[in-house]
Amino acid sequence: MTERELCQKAIGMMDMAYCPYSHFPVGAAVECSDGSVFTGCNIENAAYGAGTCAERTALSKAVSEGHRDFVRIAIAGKSDDFCVPCGICRQFMMEFAPDIEVICLNGKGENRKFALRELLPYGFDNTWL
Ligand code: THU
Q1: Cα 88 to Cα 2, 31, 118, distances in angstroms
Q2: What is the pLDDT confidence band of residue 28, given thresholds at 50, 70 and 90?
C-alpha cells in the first residue's frame, strides 16, 4: 500500500469515530511488515477515562489477529495542527514497534512524519526482560 493510500484509510476511519463528548474524530491505519493493514477510530465513553484512541483501536485489532510487526501508522484528525498520538498511544506503540514511523495528518490532509523514538525519547521498553 502506498503512503497516500494508508493516509486515505486513516482519513476515512474518522467517519467511524464515536466521539459524542469531544466531537473530535480521529482515524488510524497501521501497516504491518507483511503488508496487512488494520484500521481504527476513537471510541469514547460516558465514563470519560474508559474511552480509547484511534491508534490503540487499530493496534489492538492487529495484535488480537496475530500481527505485531508494525512498520508505519497514519493518524488523521480535523485539527489545524497535525494529529499527534497521546502519551499512552506512544507507549503502546513502543511495546511492539519502537522503530515505527508515525504519519500525522491535519484537517487539510497534509502530513508530518516522525520516528516514534522522536515522539517518545528515552521511552521505557521491554529490553529489561
Ligand atoms: N484521540 C485519538 O484518538 N488519537 C489521538 O492521537 C489524539 C486523541 C482522541 C481521544 C478522544 O476521543 C479525542 O481524540 C479527544 O481527545
Answers
A1: 27, 20, 15
A2: very high
Q: Which residues are catalytic?
A: 55
The residues, ordered by sequence, that sit 6+ positions from 4 with a Cβ below 8 Å of its Cβ are none
Tell me the pairing of strands 111-115 and 37-41. Answer: unpaired
Of 10, 30, 13, nearest to 97 (Cα)? 30
Residue 43 CA to ligand 1 center (angstroms) comes to: 9
Q: What is the pLDDT of residues 82-115, one digit of tens each?
A: 999 999 999 999 999 999 999 999 999 999 999 9
- Three cell numbers at 6? 494508508
Cβ(22) to ligand 1 under 6 A?
Answer: yes
Residue 35 pLDDT class (50, 70, 90 cuts): very high
Q: What is the C-alpha to C-alpha distance for residues 125 and 127, in angstroms, rounded to an integer?
A: 6
